[in-house]
Amino acid sequence: MNMQGLQKNAYQFYLLVLVNAFVGAMIGLERSVLSGLGEQIFHLSAYAVILSFILAFGCTKALANLGVAFLSSKFNRKKILILGWMAALPVPFLLMYARSWEWIILANILLGINQGLTWSSTVIMKIDLVGSKNRGLAMGINEFAGYLSVGLAALLAGNIAATWGYQYYPFLPGVLFVIAGLLISVFLVKDTTHFVAHETAQSNIEIYPKLWQQISWRHHNMGSVSINGLINNMNDAMVWGLLPLLLIQRDFTTVQIAWVAGIYPAVWGLSQLFTGTMGDRFCKKQIISAGMFLQGAAILMFVFFSSFSLTVAASAVLGIGTALVYPNFLTVIAENLHPTQRAKGLSIFRFWRDSGYVFGALLAGILADIFGLSITLMIVAGITVLGGVLAEIRMCCTLRQFWKSNLCSEAAVY
User: Fold this and answer.
1) Beta-carbon-side half-sphere exposure of residue 259 (alpha carbons within 13 Å)
2) Alpha carbon distance 258, 248 (integer Å)
3) How far apart are alpha carbons 409 and 414 in whole angstroms?
4) Which stretches within 242-283 are classed as H helix?
5) SS3 of 250, please?
6) CB atoms within 10 A of CB 361
7) Quick one: which of 67, 87, 111, 274 has the most CB atoms within 10 Å?
8) What's this model's pTM, rounded to 2 decimal places?
9) Would you say 234 and 353 are in contact if contact means Cβ atoms under 8 Å apart?
10) What's the rounded Cα separation, in Å, for the pair 268 and 147?
């Protein structure tokens, strides 16, 4: 009897959705206020220094994602989830009581561990629960909850900062988020590791002896997704760190910056309810390449359109473009892996994807100090478009309902 399925495991599935909402809310608190905090409270002037918090976050999140691959051989999914929440316990207090920028760096190191362990484990657990039939829908719901919460928390923190200032109060909701996430994970969430044994008995997918190489580059679909995932989070780091500073230069108010910073992940989250399902029906190659092209166009809109309404529109377009790629990145990896390799494979992909924060913080900080914000945004937009070109040229359609001319042979895929 098949134990998997969204309806059969609805209670546990939606508990994990709720947990992921709190995971997203933790990072959302920073997105609209932390760059302003560095510039206006701690009087940091160099863009590379301001973006150091994203560098710290990206390094630890990428390594924590990779750590899930090794922890999953020693601990079950639930224990990894709880460990991730324990890492987050000091974060809101470090942000609230920060006396120097080093406190912010430390908070983001712990936040990176939290995001890597908790988000990875909730993704893997949902895939365990639903099986292959509604995998795209499941990833869409997962990412919807996480990134809608990012957007709402960014909007909340920005509005609090507009009333009470950048220090202390914007981060106060984080205490509630971390306690709620930890308690739900400890007392209500159940482990899903046993689902893997059942699925393994029915799977005929190849087991790769060199999994790292396949996901990093060699496999046409998984390798292309890893590269585009890195580029996606590279431009996300730029939006997170530099866009609020660009808007400050344009004399946007703190509330207006909060709306721009919040609309992007909110649209990103809401759209994934639809774009995740699209990946179950249509060729993911075209969905991913279209998403990367839209992201590039949106970033250019930030450069050339300076009014509040058009900046909000650019933020929404960026959210749609990111929503097209994000759940489909995950499902491309999941559908090409044997169940016993899924946790490790997803962790390797997420390592490369979240390494984009590291590259983005370094690239954006250095380029912005040399060329200024506008030129930096144009360079990042160009790299994003090139990622879409790579997906269009190299990826293969694996569903036979659509775009039959783009199907690849077995030899070409591998």
Assistant:
1) 11
2) 11
3) 9
4) 243-249, 254-281
5) coil
6) 28
7) 111
8) 0.86
9) no
10) 6
